[in-house]
C-alpha cells in the first residue's frame, strides 16, 4: 500500500472510532482480533445499507422473497456443502518472522506485481510515443511485456492446477520458483503449505462429544438451500425465482488484518436465484449487470468498481467473478457473483435422502434447479462507503474540515436541527420542527456550542443537511438549510422543509435510479 493511502486508511479507522461508527470488540479487554462492534452512527449506516439491498432484491423483483434462517444448522449441512472437506485455505509460515500467510494470496500478490510492471512499461512507452501510441500493439509485441505476460499466464495455470488438485507441495514450489520473500522478515525461509479449515465449531447440548459438534455458518447461503422447497411450495414460486437473506457468517480467518475488510464475524447479504438448467449463464450475466448498477447508483464513482473473473473456481462454481472496489488497500473483492450449478441442492438431496426437485409444469418434468448467487459483504459495503466518503478538505479561509460525503439516503442522520442560539424561543421553535420531521427522517438535535462547530460535527458524521432556526424564523416561518457538501445555505419555508428533505434523502428515490 502506498504511504499516502496507508495514512488515509489509518485516518478513516480512527475517525470511525472517534465518531461512533466502529469500535474494536470488547475494547476494555484490549479487543478481540478481527472482531468489531458498530457504534451509534455505524449501526444506523449499516441498517440503511441493508434496507437499500433488501428493498432492491425483494421490492423491485416480484420473483424474489426474503428469509431469515438460523445460524446453527444440522452438521451434515456442512458435509453436503463441501465445507467440512474443502473450506480451507492453504497456509504457510515464515520461520523467521513467525508470521502466517495464505499461499494463494502470496502468489496472487506476486502476479499483481508482474501486472504492475507491464503497466509501467506501457506508461513509459505511451510517454515516449505520444499520440501515435497503440497500447494493444505494444503489449502484444514488446519482448519485455510478453515475457511478463507469459510468466503471469504460467503462474495462473500452475496455481489453478495446484488449487483444484489440493496439491500443497505444488503450491509451495510456485512460491519457491517466484522467489517470494516474507514482506516482514524479507527471508524465504518457509514451512510447508498446509490446509487450514476456516469453520468455527462448538458443541450443542451438554455432552461434549463429536456427535454434538456443530458449526457457526461460514456463509448464509446454505440456510437458503435447505429451505428451497419450503419457500417454493409455500410461496407457490415459479422458476426462475430468488431467495434473499441478510445474516451473520463466521470464518476463522488466519490473515485477519485490514480492519473490517476481513473479519472473523461478519455479515453477508446473499441471494440465490434458482433457474432452469442450461439457462444459468444468461442469468449469471443478468445478475452481474444488475449488481454493478446497484453499486454504481450510490454515486461513489463508477471508476471505483470493476469486475474480476475467477480463474480458480470454488468447489461449487462453473463461473464466478467478483465486483471489486477501489478500497484504500487497493482494488479488492466487494461482492461475489457465482454460478453454483446444482452442486448444493444435489448434495443436500444425496446427504438428506429427501427429494429437492422442482416440478416444472410447462415442461411437465422435475429437475434440480441451477443456482446463480449474488453475495455481498455488508461490512465491506460499509467500508467502501466510509472510505470513499471520508474527505479531508482545506477551506478558502485556511481552516480544515473532515467531511463524510455519505450518500444522503444512507447517512446515519438525515438532518440536524439547530437553534442558532440557546435563547429567545429559538430552541422551542427548533424542537417544534424536529417533532414534525422525526417521523419521516432520522434527526439530530443540538443547541450547545457555536453554530460553526456544530456544523463541523455534523460534517464529520456525514449529516447531509442542517436546518438552522434563527431570529428571522420567528418572524416569517423560514429556516436555512445548509448542504453538507457545498456548505451553501438556502432559506426555505418551514412548510416546505419536510418534502424537500424526504425527496433528497429517500432510499426509495435512490432505488428508482437503478
Ligand atoms: N456464499 C458465497 C460466499 O460466501 P465468498 O466470496 O466467500 O462467497 C461473499 O463471500 C462475500 O462475503 C465477499 O465478497 C465479501 O464481501 C464477504 N466476506 C467474505 N469473507 C469475509 C470476511 N472474512 N470479512 C468480511 N467480509 C467477508
UniProtKB/TrEMBL annotation:
Q: Which InterPro entries match?
A: aa-tRNA-synt_IIb, aa-tRNA-synth_II, aa-tRNA-synth_II/BPL/LPL, Anticodon-bd, Anticodon-bd_dom_sf, Gly-tRNA_synthase/POLG2, Gly_tRNA_ligase_bac, GlyRS-like_core
- Broadest EC class? ligase
Binding-site positions, ATP: 251-253, 261-266, 333-334, 377-380
Q: Which residues form the Aminoacyl-transfer RNA synthetases class-II family profile domain?
A: 199-419
Membrane-spanning parts: none
**Which positions bind substrate?**
102, 219, 266-270, 373-377
- Pfam families found in the cross-reference section: HGTP_anticodon (PF03129), tRNA-synt_2b (PF00587)
Q: Where in the cell is it found?
A: Cytoplasm
Complex formation? Homodimer.
- What's the protein called, per UniProt? Glycine--tRNA ligase
Q: Please name the source species.
A: Chryseolinea serpens
Q: What is the lineage of its organism?
A: Bacteria, Pseudomonadati, Bacteroidota, Cytophagia, Cytophagales
Q: Quick one: which gene encodes this? A: glyQS
Amino acid at each position: 500500500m502506498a504511504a499516502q493511502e496507508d495514512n488515509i486508511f489509518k485516518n478513516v479507522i480512527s475517525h470511525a472510532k472517534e465518531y461512533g461508527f466502529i469500535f474494536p470488540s470488547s475494547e476494555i479487554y484490549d479487543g478481540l482480533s478481527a472482531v468489531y462492534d458498530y457504534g451509534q452512527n455505524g449501526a444506523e449506516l449499516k441498517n440503511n445499507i441493508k434496507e437499500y439491498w433488501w428493498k432492491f432484491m425483494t421490492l423491485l423483483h416480484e420473483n424474489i422473497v426474503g428469509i431469515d434462517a438460523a445460524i446453527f444448522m444440522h452438521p451434515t449441512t456442512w458435509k453436503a456443502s463441501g465445507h467440512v472437506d474443502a473450506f480451507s485455505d492453504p497456509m504457510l509460515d515464515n520461520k523467521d518472522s513467525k508470521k502466517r500467510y495464505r499461499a494463494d494470496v502470496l502468489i496472487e500478490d506476486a502476479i499483481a506485481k508482474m501486472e504492475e510492471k507491464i503497466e509501467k512499461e506501457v506508461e513509459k512507452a505511451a510517454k515516449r510515443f505520444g499520440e501515435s501510441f497503440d497500447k494493444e500493439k505494444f503489449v502484444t509485441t514488446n519482448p519485455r511485456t510478453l515475457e511478463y505476460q507469459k510468466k503471469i499466464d504460467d503462474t495462473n495455470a500452475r496455481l489453478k492446477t495446484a488449487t483444484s488438485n489440493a496439491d500443497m507441495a505444488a503450491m509451495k514450489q510456485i512460491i519457491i520458483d517466484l522467489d517470494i520473500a516474507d514482506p516482514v522478515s524479507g527471508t524465504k525461509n518457509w514451512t510447508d503449505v498446509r490446509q487450514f479449515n476456516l469453520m468455527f465449531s462448538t458443541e450443542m447440548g451438554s455432552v461434549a462429544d463429536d456427535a454434538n459438534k456443530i458449526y457457526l455458518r461460514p456463509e448464509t447461503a446454505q440456510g437458503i438451500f435447505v429451505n428451497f422447497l419450503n419457500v417454493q411450495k409455500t410461496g407457490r414460486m415459479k422458476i426462475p425465482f430468488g431467495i434473499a437473506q441478510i445474516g451473520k457468517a463466521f470464518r476463522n480467518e488466519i490473515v485477519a488484518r485490514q480492519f473490517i475488510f476481513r473479519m472473523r464475524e461478519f455479515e453477508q447479504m446473499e441471494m440465490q436465484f434458482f433457474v432452469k438448467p442450461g439457462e444459468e449463464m444468461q442469468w449469471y450475466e443478468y445478475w452481474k449487470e444488475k449488481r454493478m448498477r446497484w453499486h454504481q447508483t450510490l454515486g461513489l464513482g463508477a471508476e471505483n468498481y470493476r469486475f474480476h473473473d475467477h480463474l480458480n473456481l470454488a468447489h461449487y462454481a462453473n463461473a464466478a467473478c467478483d465486483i471489486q472496489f477501489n478500497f484504500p488497500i487497493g482494488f479488492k473483492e466487494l461482492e461475489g457473483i457465482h454460478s453454483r450449478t446444482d452442486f448444493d441442492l444435489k448434495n443436500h438431496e444425496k446427504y438428506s435422502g429427501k427429494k429437492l426437485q422442482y416440478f416444472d409444469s410447462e415442461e411437465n418434468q422435475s429437475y434440480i434447479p441451477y443456482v446463480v448467487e449474488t453475495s455481498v459483504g455488508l461490512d465491506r459495503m460499509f467500508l467502501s462507503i466510509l472510505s470513499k466518503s471520508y474527505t479531508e478538505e482545506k477551506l478558502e479561509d485556511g481552516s480544515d474540515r473532515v467531511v463524510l460525503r455519505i450518500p444522503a439516503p444512507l447517512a446515519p442522520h438525515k438532518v440536524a436541527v439547530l437553534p442558532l442560539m440557546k435563547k429567545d424561543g429559538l430552541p422551542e421553535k427548533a424542537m417544534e420542527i424536529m417533532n414534525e420531521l422525526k417521523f419521516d427522517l432520522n434527526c439530530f438535535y443540538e443547541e450547545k456550542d457555536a453554530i460553526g462547530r456544530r456544523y463541523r460535527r455534523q460534517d464529520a458524521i456525514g449529516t447531509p443537511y442542517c436546518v438552522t432556526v434563527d431570529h428571522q424564523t420567528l418572524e416569517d416561518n423560514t429556516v436555512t438549510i445548509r448542504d453538507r457538501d457545498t456548505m451553501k445555505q438556502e432559506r426555505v419555508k418551514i412548510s416546505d422543509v419536510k418534502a424537500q428533505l424526504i425527496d433528497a434523502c429517500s432510499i426509495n428515490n435512490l432505488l428508482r435510479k437503478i
